Amino acid sequence: MCGYIEVNGEQSSPVMLQPDFSDYLPFFTRGQNKVFYPAFGKDPNKTIDIVIRENGKLKQVSATWWFDCFDTDDGLAVGNKTTFNARNLQSPFWKHSLQNQRALVFATGIGESKLVGKTKHQYYMQSDGIFVLGALYRKHAENRYSCAVITRDSHPKMEPYHDKAFPCFLPMDPTFLDIWLDEGTRQHPRIDFVLENPTLYPTLHVQRVKTYKNKVPMKTPPPTILLSDLQAKLL
């Protein structure tokens, strides 16, 4: 995980329409569809929209989806380390951003893959509404940014589709999102809990596809539903 993220602006989520989320609504543009891919091929123009808090204000920026980037005379360049995902958060490589430069990625769909035998199976996972992923970012010269989406240990519901890591879904709770983005909060018990307890917050409809771009479904297996961990507890 995670090599494809989608925002379907035609979808709406009741939770995001609640007054408590008013600060975040401007960052989900209704009516626009966007897809994002990591900066493979060392292309700094492969960006993803992230939400950060900078100088006390929420803002959305377009960040190269590859954390290991550096400034050159010609602009931002992509490094050699494969860093579109941030997994081992105990590593010093991630420490500064984990404490000081956390970000949000709003999405409605993601792509996962798994090698089955010698065949790579690709799965498109779509929610009926908006969900949010945790990310880390760096700021470079001339207001350029790079970032990585956080992943955690594998999750039982995700293992049939990707058994090595799990996207760091964040709770759709404005109080938590405020803590996550707070510039003065280097560490917090709620952040620690979310990172240490990977949770599937959205319900995802899963379909094996030929490609993420066209989403042409494979005939088998049939579509499945990954029920939100929170919803499952209510049943």
UniProtKB/TrEMBL annotation:
The keyword Kinase does not apply. The keyword Membrane does not apply. Gene3D superfamilies: SOS response associated peptidase-like. Its EC number is 3.4.-.-. GO terms for molecular function: lyase activity; peptidase activity; single-stranded DNA binding. Pfam families: SRAP. It is an enzyme of class 3 (hydrolase). InterPro entries: SRAP, SRAP-like. Keywords: Covalent protein-DNA linkage, DNA damage, DNA-binding, Hydrolase, Lyase, Protease. Coiled coil: none annotated. It comes from the Bacteria. GO terms for biological process: protein-DNA covalent cross-linking repair; proteolysis. Belongs to the SOS response-associated peptidase family. This is Abasic site processing protein.
